[in-house]
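stage 2 :: seqdesign
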């Protein structure tokens, strides 16, 4: 079975799988490896930092002949950041977390595929109106940031599929093996965007302690919260909480976010703890499917494995 969808056809890739553009960890080596494996590698550019792009884009450009793209946090960018990204000629640009309307037309004019991630139906309607080539429906099971009032992947994806048709939809959130990819296709999606699973690969730009935490992590230990954003002085908008593995500051400040935000001494204490190595330099972003991650493969091999698992799952489902 060959899984041919609107996603594989547009990008000319073998598998309906995209790398989530995770800020920091989705660098050039990881994006290139995903593309070499037959998926779509997306660099996690975040705010479009010029130095980061200058370092990572040549790595992905030299590392693959396949398509690749860049992901940006919409709340953190301006037109200049988008222009810097487009100068590098990405095949796709994915915008997440904020109003994409100031940037959508510029991306389309440049010839890059416009991928808009949405966390609710209002955002999905806006994405359709803006002419998105693909809409990414993010469920709350996903690791890292997402909507504080979002919905789970299973009910959310088909709602977005129905609302957006004929615009194709990609699913993200709680997908860490080929069965999850197959489930996304069964829900009507044209593919899956995968994050946490790709953090635990040889090419991901993550500290070894974070890799170990992911491989040893359990879904019931993940939690969606704002505590760690507040403690580390992050400017993420309050409407987006982050799913992470457990953390000492979560236990200390859970339910006391307003108090933490008003306590600069507590925030300095967090930075001091990081400097002393008593807490990780970054939170361990991890989705609810973290239990399914038990090894550290090369990302290109992982893409092929996920594709084969998805084909097998759909074949077995057809027999039943």
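stage 2 :: out
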């Amino acid at each position: 079975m060959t899984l041919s969808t609107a996603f594989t056809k547009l990008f000319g890739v073998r598998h309906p799988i995209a790398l989530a553009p995770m800020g920091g960890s989705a660098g050039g080596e990881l994006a290139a490896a995903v593309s070499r494996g037959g998926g779509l590698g997306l660099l996690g550019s975040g705010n479009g930092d010029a130095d980061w792009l200058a370092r990572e884009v040549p790595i992905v450009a030299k590392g693959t002949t396949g398509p690749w793209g860049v992901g940006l946090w919409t709340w953190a960018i301006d037109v200049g950041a988008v222009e810097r990204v487009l100068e590098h000629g990405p095949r796709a640009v994915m915008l997440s977390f904020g109003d994409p309307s100031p940037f959508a037309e510029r991306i389309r004019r440049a010839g890059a595929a416009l991928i808009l991630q949405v966390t609710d139906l209002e955002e999905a309607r806006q994405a359709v109106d803006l002419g998105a080539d693909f809409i990414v429906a993010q469920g709350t099971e996903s690791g890292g940031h997402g909507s504080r009032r979002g919905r789970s992947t299973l009910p959310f994806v088909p709602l977005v599929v129905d609302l957006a048709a004929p615009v194709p939809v990609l699913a993200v959130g709680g997908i860490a093996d080929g069965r999850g990819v197959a489930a996304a296709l069964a829900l009507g999606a044209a593919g899956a965007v995968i994050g946490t699973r790709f953090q635990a690969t040889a090419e991901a730009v993550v500290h070894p302690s974070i890799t170990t935490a992911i491989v040893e992590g359990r879904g019931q230990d993940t939690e969606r919260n704002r505590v760690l954003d507040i403690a580390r002085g992050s400017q993420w908008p309050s409407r987006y909480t982050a799913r992470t593995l457990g953390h000492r500051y979560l236990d200390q400040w859970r339910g006391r976010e307003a108090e933490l935000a008003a306590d600069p001494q507590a925030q300095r204490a967090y930075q001091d703890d990081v400097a002393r190595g008593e807490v990780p330099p970054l939170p361990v972003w991890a989705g609810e499917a973290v239990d399914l991650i038990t090894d550290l493969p090369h990302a290109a091999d992982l893409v092929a494995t996920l594709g084969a698992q998805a084909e097998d799952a759909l074949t077995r489902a057809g027999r039943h």
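stage 3 :: structure notes
- The radius of gyration is 19 Å.
- The CA atoms of residues 2 and 154 lie 24 Å apart.
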